[in-house]
Amino acid sequence: MSANLFKSFVTVASKRAPTQRPKAGIREQRRLETRNRLYEAAVAEFQRVGFANAQIDRIVEAAGVARGTFYFHFPAKENVLLELQRRIETSVMERLARHGTVPTSVKDFLTRIIDAILEESESIGDQDLLREILSLYLRQPVKLNYEEEPLIGGLSRVFQQGVENGDVRDDIPTEEITIIFLVTLFGFFKGTTKAPRPERKTLHNMIEVFLHGITPKN
Predict the structure, then answer these.
(1) Where would you tag: which of 22, 118, 183, 187 has the fewest CB atoms within 10 A of its CB?
(2) pLDDT value for 10
(3) Nearest C-alpha neighbor of 81 from the set 42, 25, 35, 121
């Protein structure tokens, strides 16, 4: 993997992180503060009563805004989960950046991705909320905008470089390879959120099986 691609991958999320925006005017700053209050109030509500039982009326009351303000920032409760997902992706990217060295292969890179996601899932703590995030992703992976999902877009670029280097087969679109990898990975997590997390070794074995499928056939 080229150093430039890896650097691009681990920095793109931080540029889009909600807490790292260019200095805004007073009106824009207030808008962002209101959005963040709503986000934090919604996440707290999800953690308290669960996503399905969360009430927007309670969320806006906790945030100190009108109900319509919630819909201005988040069309539905699911959009709050998408925001949380993106923030988690940003944190995963930051963990990768702290590794310090450039991955030597697609396998090395995927192993680091899995290790970073495992560490992040352990830091979340609320496994019911994690299940909701994974369920949302698994229901609509093909509907996600790659430009707005740094982890997905970054993985697709990594697989594309693998195609160009002859390490990844070229008869399957890299976007499909990305979706297959993440759906498989997140399926492991969703199936075990009520039980112990999947073992690191099991997930590393999954990489071996996955790579066997995307390696060019001689």
Answers:
(1) 22
(2) 53
(3) 42
Closest CA to 13 of 155, 122, 143, 128: 155
Question: Does residue 14 register a pLDDT over 50?
Answer: no
* Residue with the two structure tokens 């919604």: 42
- Alpha carbon 111 to its chain's center: 16
Which residues are CB-contacts of 25 (< 8 A; sequence separation ≥ 6)? none
The structural domains of the chain, ordered by start, are 3-16+77-214 (1.10.357)
Contact indicator for 163, 169 with CB cutoff of 8 Å: yes
- Identify the band that residue 19 occupies on the pLDDT scale cut at 50, 70 and 90: very low
Q: What are phi and psi of 193, to 5 degrees?
A: -70, -20
| 89, 151 contact by CB (below 8 A) | yes
Pick 192 or 152 by higher pLDDT.
152
- How far from 27 is each of 34, 42, 131, CA to CA, in Å? 11, 23, 36
Over its C-alpha atoms, the chain yields an Rg (Å, rounded) of 19
Give the Cα-Cα-Cα angle 9, 14, 19 (nearest 5 degrees).
165
